[in-house]
């Protein structure tokens, strides 16, 4: 499992092992200030990071910045 | 009105049998007898309750013959059907405290009789049993007997009567991890200022809430080849089909939803929304992909970057939802995820 | 800065042809209030009602609770930057109408918040059951955006509270209280031996129904900064948030901030109340880091010995709370934090979403998940249409006998984290 979230300290506190930082609380995988195409690119970028995290061995809680 | 029945458990020392040299004294029940600290308890009970039997057991005997001692004492206790079982006070005697905690817990669990005990906060029995049995904190020696009985007796009576037990601060037991609300004498801001003045002066103060612990799980091994993996989406952002058909709560969720996204390539304002009441929902309701990235995962699926996107996603509202509830939801749907051959999960939160 | 705050006790509110205050009774002209509220074209109608302590009345969904005040001497007017022009407040003389409040209610698309019961078990959990409440149930025009509706209702509340406060201008207060803080040098000279203490107030700043305004500025756009504690007594900070109802600060809470009052009580005696520091709770991690860095930096710069920190809200703001606490403690400044808890209905779950050993001195406003049964009351001001959608309610809320099974979460002000109430937990 990989956790995509904005407030990574909470993710660390509650014990997630693979963490990917998101944009903001109301739109973790989006940014309404961007135009739709740019926003989708941003979203894809975060999801790709998450997929890479899933493929990475970790020993401790790790934030994939 | 007949008095409530109490069975009292003490060790060889408090029964005046002897000290360490008599710690191997086998468990015995003295019916109709009040012994040692039982006298103080009886006085405190007034005419509301009486000790119908006292069980005496050596600390070494108990700890070295755990199963037999437990079974014997349970049988003795069962016979008398007390309204409450009181063990100790054990003060700082370690084996005695552990024995008190063990037997009180067993009586509660196996006989369904409410139990209470008392000991010093550093007695190993305290940490071991305070979450299972009410334990009244005492001083670290028998010099604290009077003070201990003063709190122990009323709590025992409450338990015997089946009355609701208040917060640890009100009813005088060691905080046991179950938070109970109650009204203080003073408002919170005043309590805060007083606490700060004590802290600044280097004086002892008591926090109203000790920082919580969260468990840890070992990291799973990495996915070997994500391009072959079945990936599932789970969210605490409360994403639901428009109209929230399962009525997932906006806070303190009592349920989670399982939703089928077969044939869904994109979440839109017409088809999905959030049930979560803890964040500004406007952006999410315009496009729920901003919380649950279905559109992007579909693209990645088409391009062969992942094996497949699982056709079900799981969703609940994180807002104000208890850890225990979240744990229970996940334990349940994780079984389904495994059964459905899912290899990895992307969990999103708001 | 010194403020004289005069209290005028209001014992009753009556709807009458002419607005005035006489012998402790507030007479309100419905016409006048409607005119003020409907000045805003975005609002379609307003219904006025009065709810008194002890009456079998339920007010829901509650948006804000505001205490009418008027500035009679000194610069500025109440609610600077919002109703009055921008000008520094907190000095001179202000009158407050005690024993009453203006309550705004009405449906806002989304999650409808807040219940105030004037009697019964629910009344024990909200301070507003003890006040004479002038309730305005406000309806918007059709096809209005949520943000616009929220703003219109918010302003309506302040406008009416200011209008009613104005009625007290010529009166003589029943009692007067003086609050004075000093400049850094003055304070050091006056109280060289007393511990230097400040109040760090965290402000909710997360979007629709989750916002706070400082001199009219949206708190999410602010950097942590310093205030004279008397400024909030003139409405320098106002509420734009009510979700969840139990732990959001209404404007009434801001005007009557109890941490400020209790620190003033000890000011000059056991501590030197240096100032108030405000900091926000934004939705970006970088903002959380920046704001808490700034707060800790200021605590150090001001040579403080200790602070009382009050949170607003729960969940992700627990991270702001813990960041503030950790960083301030790391500067050698002692903290006591005031929070509330979400320990689950059985009280067994972790109460906070974030934690740190540095937070060793905590005051709690209670577990917001505690379930309570609110009996059916005779009258509802507002609407019960959304009762199952409020944060803290569910499908199971409405029971066959008309009573409500809800969490304390739904009651306005129930677990307030400025320490307003006596509710606690162990």
Description:
The complex is a heterotrimer of chains A (65), B (350) and C (426). Chain A has 65 residues and is of the alpha/beta class. Chain A is built from 2 helices and 3 strands. A 3-stranded parallel sheet of chain A has the order 1-2-3, with helices on both faces. In chain A, strand 1 (2-5), helix 1 (8-14) and strand 2 (18-21) form a beta-alpha-beta unit. Chain A starts with a strand and ends with a strand. Chain B starts with a strand and ends with a strand. The model of chain B has no long low-confidence stretch (mean pLDDT 95). In chain B, helix 1 crosses helix 6 and helix 3 packs across helix 4 (94-111). In chain B, the strands form 3 sheets. In chain B, strands 2-3-1-4-5-6 form a 6-stranded mixed sheet, with helices on both faces. With 350 residues, chain B is an alpha/beta fold. Chain B folds into 2 domains: 4-171, Response regulator (Rossmann fold), CATH 3.40.50; 226-348, no CATH class. With 426 residues, chain C is an alpha/beta fold. Chain C is built from 7 helices and 26 strands. Chain C has helices at residues 30-37, 146-166, 184-190, 251-255, 258-266, 285-301, 317-330, and strands at 2-9, 12-15, 20-22, 25-28, 43-51, 57-60, 62-66, 69-73, 92-98, 100-105, 116-117, 132-140, 175-180, 196-204, 210-214, 217-218, 225-227, 237-241, 272-281, 306-310, 334-341, 362-367, 371-374, 379-382, 404-407, 423-425. Chain C has a 6-stranded mixed sheet with strand order 17-19-14-20-21-22, with helices on both faces. In chain C, strand 3 and strand 4 (25-28) form a beta hairpin. In chain C, 62% of the residues are buried. The model of chain C has no long low-confidence stretch (mean pLDDT 96). Classes of the chains: A alpha/beta (65), B alpha/beta (350), C alpha/beta (426). Chains in contact: A-B, A-C, B-C. Chains B and C meet through helix 7, strand 7, helix 8 and helix 11 of B and helix 5, strand 20, strand 21, strand 22 and strand 26 of C.
């Amino acid at each position: 499992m990989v956790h995509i979230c904005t407030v990574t300290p909470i993710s660390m506190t509650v014990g997630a092992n693979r963490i990917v930082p998101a944009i903001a609380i109301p739109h973790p995988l989006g940014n309404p200030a961007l135009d739709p195409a740019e926003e989708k690119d941003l979203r894809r970028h975060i999801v790709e990071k998450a997929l890479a995290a899933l493929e990475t061995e970790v020993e401790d809680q790790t934030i994939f910045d | 009105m007949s008095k409530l029945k109490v069975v009292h458990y003490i060790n060889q020392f408090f029964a005046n049998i002897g000290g360490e040299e008599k710690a191997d004294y086998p468990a015995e029940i003295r019916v109709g007898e009040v012994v040692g600290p039982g006298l103080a308890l009886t006085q405190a009970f007034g005419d509301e309750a009486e000790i119908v039997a006292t069980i005496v057991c050596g600390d070494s005997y108990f700890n070295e013959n755990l199963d037999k001692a437990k079974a014997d004492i349970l049988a003795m206790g069962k016979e008398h059907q007390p309204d409450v079982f009181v063990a100790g006070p054990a003060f700082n005697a370690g084996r005695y405290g552990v024995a008190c905690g063990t037997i009180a817990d067993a009586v509660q669990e196996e006989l369904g009789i409410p139990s209470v005990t008392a000991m010093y906060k550093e007695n190993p029995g305290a940490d071991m049993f305070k979450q299972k049995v009410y334990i009244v904190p005492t001083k670290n020696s028998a010099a604290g007997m009077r003070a201990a009985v003063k709190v122990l007796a009323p709590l025992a009576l409450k338990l015997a009567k089946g009355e609701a037990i208040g917060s640890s601060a009100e009813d005088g037991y060691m905080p046991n991890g179950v938070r109970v609300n109650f009204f203080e004498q003073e408002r919170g801001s005043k309590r805060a200022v007083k606490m700060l003045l004590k802290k600044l002066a280097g004086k002892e103060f008591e926090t109203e809430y000790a920082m919580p612990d969260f468990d840890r799980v070992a990291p799973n091994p990495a996915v070997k080849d994500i391009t072959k993996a079945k990936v599932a989406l789970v969210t605490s952002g409360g994403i639901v089909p428009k109209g929230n058909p399962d009525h997932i709560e906006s806070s303190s969720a009592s349920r989670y939803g399982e939703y089928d996204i077969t044939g869904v390539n994109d979440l839109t304002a017409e088809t999905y929304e959030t049930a979560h009441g803890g964040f500004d929902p406007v952006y999410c309701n315009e496009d729920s992909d901003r919380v649950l990235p279905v559109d992007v995962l579909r693209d990645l699926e088409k391009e062969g970057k992942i094996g497949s996107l699982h056709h079900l996603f799981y969703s609940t509202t994180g807002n104000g939802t208890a850890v225990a509830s979240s744990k229970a939801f996940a334990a349940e749907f994780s079984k389904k995820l495994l059964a459905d051959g899912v290899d990895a999960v992307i969990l999103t939160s708001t | 800065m010194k403020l004289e705050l005069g209290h005028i006790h209001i014992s009753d509110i009556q709807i009458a042809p002419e607005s005035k205050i006489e012998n402790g009774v507030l007479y309100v002209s419905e016409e006048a209030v409607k005119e003020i509220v409907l000045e805003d074209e975005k609002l379609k109608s307003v219904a006025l009602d009065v709810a008194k302590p002890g009456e079998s009345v339920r007010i829901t969904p509650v948006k804000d609770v505001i205490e009418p005040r008027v500035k009679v001497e000194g610069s500025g007017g109440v609610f600077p930057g919002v109703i009055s022009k921008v000008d520094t407040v907190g000095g001179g003389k202000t009158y407050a109408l005690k024993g009453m409040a203006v309550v705004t209610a009405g449906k806002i698309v989304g999650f409808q918040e807040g219940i105030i019961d004037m009697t019964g078990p629910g009344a024990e959990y909200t301070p507003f059951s003890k006040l004479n409440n002038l309730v305005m149930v406000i309806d918007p025009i059709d096809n209005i955006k949520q943000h616009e509706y929220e703003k219109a209702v918010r302003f309506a509340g302040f406008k009416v509270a200011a209008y009613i406060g104005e009625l007290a201008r010529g009166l003589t207060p029943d009692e007067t209280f003086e609050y004075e803080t000093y400049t850094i040098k003055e304070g050091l000279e006056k109280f060289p031996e007393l511990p230097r203490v400040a109040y760090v107030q965290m402000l909710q700043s997360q979007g629709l129904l989750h916002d706070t305004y400082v001199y009219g500025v949206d708190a999410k756009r602010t950097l942590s900064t310093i205030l004279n504690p008397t400024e909030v007594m003139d409405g320098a900070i106002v509420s734009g948030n009510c979700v969840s109802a139990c732990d959001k600060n209404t404007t009434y809470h801001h005007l009557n901030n109890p941490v400020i009052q209790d620190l003033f009580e000890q000011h000059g005696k056991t501590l030197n109340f240096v100032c108030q520091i405000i900091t926000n709770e934004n939705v970006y991690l970088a903002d959380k880091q920046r704001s808490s860095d700034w707060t800790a930096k200021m605590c150090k710069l001001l040579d403080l010995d200790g602070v009382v920190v009050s949170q607003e809200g729960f969940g992700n703001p627990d991270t702001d709370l813990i960041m503030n606490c950790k960083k301030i403690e790391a500067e050698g400044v002692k903290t006591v934090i005031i929070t509330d808890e979400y320990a689950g209905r059985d009280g067994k779950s972790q109460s906070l979403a974030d934690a740190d050993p540095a937070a060793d001195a905590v005051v709690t406003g209670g577990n917001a998940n505690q379930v309570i049964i609110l009996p059916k009351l005779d009258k509802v001001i507002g609407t019960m249409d959304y009762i199952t959608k409020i944060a803290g309610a569910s499908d199971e809320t409405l029971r066959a006998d008309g009573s409500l099974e809800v969490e304390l979460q739904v009651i306005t002000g129930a677990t307030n984290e400025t320490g307003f109430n006596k509710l606690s937990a162990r």
